[in-house]
Write a structure and sequence with these properties.
This protein folds into 3 domains: 202 residues, Rossmann fold; 43 residues; 80 residues, Tyrosyl-Transfer RNA Synthetase (Orthogonal Bundle). It is built from 15 helices and 4 strands. With 374 residues, it is mostly helical. The chain binds adenosine-5'-triphosphate (ATP) and magnesium ion. The site of adenosine-5'-triphosphate has 14 residues, from helix 1.
Length: 374
Amino acid sequence: MTKSVILTGLRANNDLTLGNYFGGMLPIIEMAKARSSEYQINMFIPDLHSFTTPINHDELQTQVMNNARLFVAAGLPLDNNEIHLYRQSYISAHSELTWILDCFTGMGEMQRMTQFKDKSNKLSNDAFNATKDEQAESPLVNTAMALESAMHSSERISVGLFNYPVLMAADILLYDALYVPVGDDQTQHLEYTRDIAERMNSKFGSIFTVPLAAPKQHEFFGKGQGLRIMDLQTPSKKMSKSDESGKGVIFLSDDPKLAAKKVMSATTDDLALIAFDRKNQPGITNLLEILSLLRGTPLDDVVAEFEGHTRYGDFKKVVANEVEGFLTNFQANLSEVDDSKVLEKLESSEIAMRASANKTLLRAQRAVGLRPKE
Ligand code: ATP
Ligand code: MG
């Protein structure tokens, strides 16, 4: 019996934060390890998706390898045959199926994608702000404005950014994946994937497996445990890698000593009493959560250990040491990742995945008449 497929893209680069590590990478790795006895796990590096917005292409190769290495350093096993790790562009069916799906996708469908609207808006913000002060409130006007800005800054906004959900649909459909962990920002793309799959199936007969809808995905994966590590300087906002100053952000690539300093200068409060209180003591609360994650001990235990203490400096020192130790360890793991083993894994997964992707592609090619019917 063939196993159902769980599919997820792996994105990682040098700028990842402690938040990305605990909120993004670890849950994926834990899920893969836990589910791999019952499911086939497809984990791919979305290199084709990486330049929908401008990048430095001289660095892409290094980044792709580094992306894989980061996950390995964080604990992704290379010796599990039910976990496949592959580079999207090494399986040409992704690009080929995208074209076919493109031709059955309405412009309007893509125009409705909020991610495109957000990202293209962001890219063309300057030009956009200069001409329009009154930001549109209605989605319709917003779409029109997004498109208008897209046209006015055609140098900067690519067709790739516009139709990347189609590539995403191909990523999923090629492997008959039922399960795809989706955050809220990707729900609409999953819906589109289901729509295009159903549309093709009803026009041509059964070609694709339709992935489950978002609520079912959340049921399966358990919807985001709601983990949010906050910025150390401004604990009312979440720690994020694109933060301007980076002063309140712990990056996985930070010098461990510097990271410890960032913890020591974290914003707290003047109550001088340690308590877990997100509302009134967000800084202290954030440090308690970080400590619990780093130690891998329940939050309650950590809270019990420090609750009522009055010396923030001592507490910060404990957290700072833990952060320093964690980064030292992680960076050592990263430098010990054996590139040749990673490459071997990528290449063997790619052979296996190419075969299964090509089967689906052939079904689609036959359906649309590019290949003779069976
Ligand atoms: P950006 O500033 O570019 O949005 P980001 O740091 O918010 O970057 P994302 O790329 O948006 O990171 O998210 C990557 C993954 O990391 C997601 O799974 C997201 O839930 C998780 N994540 C991001 N920030 C945090 C955080 N502060 N705490 C916990 N998880 C986080
Ligand atoms: Mg984000």
